Structure formats: structure tokens, C-alpha cells
Amino acid sequence: MSSSSSPLDSLKRWVVTNYAEPLDSVKQSIRVVYVVFAFCSALLLGGIKALLVGPIAAALLIIGNVGVILGLFPGHVAWTVYSLIKTKCINWALKFALLFALPILFGIWLALSIFGSVLVGLGYGFFTPWISTFEAFRKDSEAEKFFHCIVDGTWGTIKGSCTVVRDFADICYHSYPLYLKELRESSRDHQPYSIRLLDVPACILVGIMGLIVDIPLYTVIALIKSPYMLFKGWQRLLHDLISREGPFLETACVPIAGLAILLWPLVVVGSVLLAIVSSIFVGLYGSVVVYQEKSFQRGVAFVVAMVSEFDEYTNDWLYLREGSIIPKPRYRKKKVSHSAEFSVGRSIGKGVEGPSTSTEAPAMLVPNLAPSRSVRETIQEVKMVQVWENIMKSCEIRGKELVDSNIVTAVDLSEWLRTKGSSQETVGVGLPCYAFLHSLLFSIKAGSSGLLLSNGIEVTQHNRPQDRLLDWFFHPVMVLKEQIHVLSMREEELRFLERLLLSMGNIPPVNVWDGPAIPQDPVRAAQIQAISRRLVGMMRIISKFPTYRRRYRHVVKLLITYCVEKEGSHRSRSMRSVSSVEIVPIEV
């Protein structure tokens, strides 16, 4: 047996020794050929789908958004003028300055919104089918890849265009009037903002000067540095391709990364356009600096300093020389206490102020040219859609609990759907606050260091979505969670907090909902009321976000269906009980 096996073993060793490396090279060549063939096929198929679906999706989005803009424009003008005249948080001199600037602001709104709708419509309609074709390569089996390459990005793109129009209409018709309503009612709690009548001409002059100076200079700087951005980006992407880092780490993602190389010039063009658009608002902000500093010279200094800031900021992002050759005069008498997150950057050079703490955000959003994160790190990150779905699922579950307790009825839900949501704040604000409170309590009981979702996913500082909207809320939510944890509320105090949330922070009568009364300790009662006000304030802001109203209306419709099914089951049970009663004849 050993004499017969030894020649075979020696033959295997000889084959492995002499042909292992050639076989590996052949496999690698086949893999490269497969990737190139898949990329070219997806590029061609995506282009065909873009030509077929793109015009329809782009037309729906452009016509819908432009129709919303023009249709609501008279209402926006009337609501804004009425709110400015009605509000008491600003004095008449500031009202006059704002009313004088309104025609310019509304003209900018019309121009930018229509131009942005056309740009977004074309980009979404033509590039979404293309990108969806490449994303199909992330599927596991070859059959799924082939099927999704053909199907993805067709009907879904058309539906997505309608969804974008609907969300945009919600923002224009619901969110903006709510902001104006808050403006009219926010004057009761703080000192009104005021300006001297002599400063109004200075604000107007500096605003016009900012438009004249900043727009051309920002445009020139962005155009001069766009070739650097183009080649630096290609260099970064090609380096990742050669070293198999970032988006090129896994073979399934190589076609998508290849598409990123081809579309990088469009990213550069978009960044230049964004710089030009942002220069309008940076120039107009000079009027705010005049108002804050009570100085015309400080406003002029701001207009010049922002050009230097922009030049310095783009140099840092594109790894060019530090600092800027443009002078940067000091435009603040003292540091303004704002978050450093909105700081433009650090001042470099002689005779300039220290680290900037102003509220001006970077004027040009240049994509990060640093080494990309790996695909595995990106996959492990919690997506924003998961957070939204969890919030809505929690609202549905807690809403059913309130329906079962007869705290929320089908009449309340239907009335919220019929009106704009203001007449039934228990449904519009109280229910989401109630659901979010229980999400925080669930995370506290589980000992989570972040926010534990109902599906078991934990959102922490490391894996949270890289979304600007979530950046504004994640830290305050964690602070609020820690405050609730430190309070260690008893059962009756939790019930009191729930009552407060369902009443939007107001103390309801005891007969509205059976439960404990106000805590005897006034300090504890004040702490609980403060938590309720923070939760209500957060939820009011979140309710103005895009996609929120559409998703929450779907939840309310599900709760109405649940109410109808519940009433139907009660009626059927009562009918069965009546029919089961035996009728006994009465003898006379």
C-alpha cells in the first residue's frame, strides 16, 4: 500500500511545486478579466437604463418641485411678511432692515431652488439607475446579481422622484410655517433683538459689498484650485485601487469604485458650484457681523477675512501650502461663544486672530482626500434609515398601547390626519415623545453606553451614522439619557413624566388620565418637568425634518387601522355573546 501511494504523493508535490504559482497567476488574471467585464457590462447596462428611466424621473422631480416652489411662493411671501410684522422678538428698526432685504432673499430663493431642482432632478434621474446597477454586484449569488442589475434603478427611481417631491412639499407647506409660528410666539421668554436705526444703512451696504466682493473671489479661487482637486482625487482613488484599500478592498465593490473614478470630475464641478452658491450667504452674513459688532468697519473686515478663510480652508483640504496670501483683518472685538464645530479653521500668519470661534461654516465642501475607510468599517456603521425605521416602529408599538388604554382614540388620529397636525398635539408630538422616552429607558435598563434600538442594534459614538442632522442631536440625547439615569425615577414619577409628555410638557388634570399626582418634592417635580420640556423641544425640531411627516403619517394610518380592527373584534365578540344567550319562553 505504501509503495503504491508514494509515487502519487511525489507526483502531487511535483505538481504543486512547479505549477502552484502559474495557477495562482491564472486565477488572478481570470479575476481581473471578470472584474473588467463586469464593470463594462454594468456601465453599458446602467447607461441604457439611465436613458430610458432618467427623462421620466427627472421630469417628475423637476416639474413637481418647481410647481411646489411657484405655487407656494405667494403664500411664503405673505407668511414671512406677516410673521416679521407680528413677532415681538425684534424691534422695528431690525424689522425694517429685514423687510428691505426680503426681496433679495426671495429672489435668491427662487433662483437657487429652481436651479437646484433642475440639477438634483437630472442627477437623480440619470445617475441613480447607473449606480443601482453597480450596487447589484454586492449580492451573493450570480443569479441575484444578474436580476438586480436589470431591475434595480428602474421603477424604484421613478417612485423615489415622487417621494422627493412629496418630502419637499411637506417642508415647504408644513415645516416652514411651523418655523414662522415659532418666530411669532418666541418673544415671550427672552429679551427682544434690537438694532439702532443708524446701523440699518451700514448693514445694507455691507451686505451688498459682500455680494460684490465674495462671489467673484470665491469663484476665481474655486476655479483655480479645481484642477488640483481633480488630480488629487484621482491620485487618491488610484492609490486605493493599486494598494487595495478603502472602496477597493473587496472585489465586489471594485466596479462601484471604478464608477467613482469616472464620476470624480462631476464631484469637482459640484464642489465649485457649491462654493459659488455658499459665497452668496457668506457675503450676506457681513450684515449680521455689523449688527453684532455695531461697527461698519468690522463688517468690511469680515468680507475680506472670509476670502482669506476660504483660501486657507481649501489649501488645507487639498494639501497645498499653509495659510493664505490674502490679508485677514480682525473682525471680532471678542470671541463669540459658539460651538467650535462650526469653526472655519485656524488662522495662520502674522497679525491675525487666534482660533476662529465664529459661526460661519466652511464655505466650500471639499470631499475628503484622506485615505478612505475600509468597506467593512462602512458596512458596520449604522445607517440613518435604520434609526428612522426604529423610531417609527417604536411610535407604532407605543401608539397601540395608548389606543388599548383609550388615551388615544381613532377620532384623535383621524383629526390629526385631516388637519395640519396642530389641533391634536397629543398625536403629533406627545406620542413620539412618549415612544422616545421608552427607547431611552430601554437603553438605560440594558446598560447600553449609547442608544439601543429595538432590533438589538446599539448606536454609539463609533458606529453612529455620519449624518449632519444626527450630529446635532446625538450628544444632547446622550446627555438627556444620562440625566434620566441619574434621576432614578420611581414608577409613579415615570407615570407623571409620561403624562407630561402626552400633554406637551403641561401638567394635565388628574381626571384626564388615572395616575399619580405631582411629586411632593418640588425639586424632583421641577427636574421631571425640565426633562419633559427637553424631550418635547427635541421632538418638535425632529418633526420638521425631511421624510419625517411622510413616515409618521404612515404610522398614524396603521394606528387607525388597528383601532378599526379592534372595534370590529369587540363588535363580533358582543354579537357572539348575544347569539349564545338561550331564549326561554315566558308562560302566561
Molecular structure report:
This protein has 588 residues and is mostly helical. It folds into three domains: 29-193, no CATH class; 195-374, no CATH class; 381-572. It is 71% helix and 1% strand. The protein contains 15 helices and two strands. The protein has helices at residues 2-86, 92-135, 142-151, 155-185, 199-243, 254-293, 296-317, 375-380, 384-404, 410-418, 425-445, 468-487, 491-502, 522-542, 548-579, and strands at residues 451-452, 458-459. Strands 1-2 form a two-stranded antiparallel ribbon. α1 runs antiparallel to α2 (92-135) and α6 (254-293) runs antiparallel to α7 (296-317). The radius of gyration is 31 Å and the shape is globular.
Would you spell out the secondary-structure blueprint of this structure?
Layout: H1 2-86, H2 92-135, H3 142-151, H4 155-185, H5 199-243, H6 254-293, H7 296-317, H8 375-380, H9 384-404, H10 410-418, H11 425-445, E1 451-452, E2 458-459, H12 468-487, H13 491-502, H14 522-542, H15 548-579
Antiparallel strand pairs: 1-2
